Amino acid sequence: MGSTLNEYEAKYAPKRLQVVGKIQELVPLPVPRVSVVGTRQPTDEGIAFARRLVENLVRERVIIVSGLARGIDTVAHRTALEKGGRTIAVLGTPLDRFYPPENRELQLMLMREHLVISQFPIGSPVTRKNFVLRNRTMALISNATVIVEAGEKSGVISQAWESIRLNRPLFVSRLVESRRPSWVDELMKYGAMVLQDPDELDELLDLLPWMSPQELVRQLTSLNH
Prior knowledge:
Helix content: 40-55%
Shape: globular
Structural class: alpha/beta
Strand content: 5-15%
CATH topology: Rossmann fold
Number of strands: 8
Distance between the termini: 21 Å
Order of helices and strands: HEEHEHEHEHEHEHHEHH
CATH architecture: 3-Layer(aba) Sandwich
Strand order of the largest sheet: 1-5-4-3-2-6-7-8
Largest sheet: 8 strands, mixed
């Protein structure tokens, strides 16, 4: 996933990951990687924010990480593909399950051309707890997390707190901040930041790890062969 895990990361990391896709040819994974996540029932404003955010991140050669769920996650993956970017899906199910079912073809395509990760062995049961664990793993895999749109009881809260514990940059969009779910104020006490505009990413980009131009070219070239 990158450099050697520190003590905290190693303690809470999954013992084993199931990995399928083209990016797995590269170890460690290319950086930077940003999670773009949010509600399964986004507003039109949330969808537009997510699309513009991903477009701009892809332009900067950032790999988009998300959870292949309905809503913001699907928008993030599909926008990355439309704009010629790279994307990683982290599942709350084993690799042989498709949830939501309408994302079956998207998941299969990501398994062929990008990267799909699961910490759940083939044949294991799917429970609600899986998705909390999946969100924590997404935070570990990502160099930063952006929550685009989320309500009072959103599943992304677990990813937000894991990002804080890992000391990874955590951003909530102005859409989240303006609606003020109770968890936002608490996260901001611990360092969460507000992303006001998906076209103004300097603060986020400055906090990400970057490869040298030579290493980036080498890795991108190897992905395309």
